[in-house]
């Protein structure tokens, strides 16, 4: 393995994995019964929740597409690449930190939901470490 030549492919793989998280994100409203739980909230609060979800999904989409479409640039270490990778690391680091304060246990009722939750946690950790490394190397 030659890191200099393989790094863009690794960045692309990370991009694919980031985009795959959108599949899990799309399952959240149904799995958590947003429609039922949010029914008693004022319309504005329901709308805000969907907007926050859309912004989060758009951020994941953006970082995933950057990694998928311009992996050589991100692996190249320019100032802009390091800033983009740093922003990506901060995003996933914050998301990783949120795993520690969210109480998802009541919703992890099936083995595949528990496995998916733990897989997501590992991905959040991997993205944080990988993109932080790209930003500071």
UniProtKB/TrEMBL annotation:
Q: Which domain of life is it from?
A: Bacteria
Keywords for this protein: Membrane, Transmembrane, Transmembrane helix
Q: Where are the transmembrane segments?
A: 7-28, 48-68, 80-98, 118-136
What is the name of this protein?
DUF4149 domain-containing protein
Q: Which organism is it from?
A: Haloferula helveola
């Amino acid at each position: 393995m030659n890191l200099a030549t393989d790094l863009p492919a690794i960045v692309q793989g990370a991009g694919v994995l980031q985009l795959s998280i959108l599949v899990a994100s799309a399952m959240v409203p149904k799995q958590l019964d947003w429609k039922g739980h949010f029914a008693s909230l004022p319309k504005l609060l329901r709308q805000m929740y969907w907007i926050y979800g859309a912004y989060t999904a758009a951020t994941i989409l953006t970082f995933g597409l950057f990694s998928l479409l311009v992996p050589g640039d991100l692996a190249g270490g320019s100032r802009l690449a390091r800033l983009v990778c740093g922003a990506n690391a901060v995003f996933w680091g914050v998301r990783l930190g949120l795993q520690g304060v969210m109480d998802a246990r009541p919703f992890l009722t099936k083995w595949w939901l528990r496995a998916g939750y733990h897989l997501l946690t590992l991905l959040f950790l991997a993205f944080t470490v990988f993109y932080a490394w790209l930003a500071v190397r």
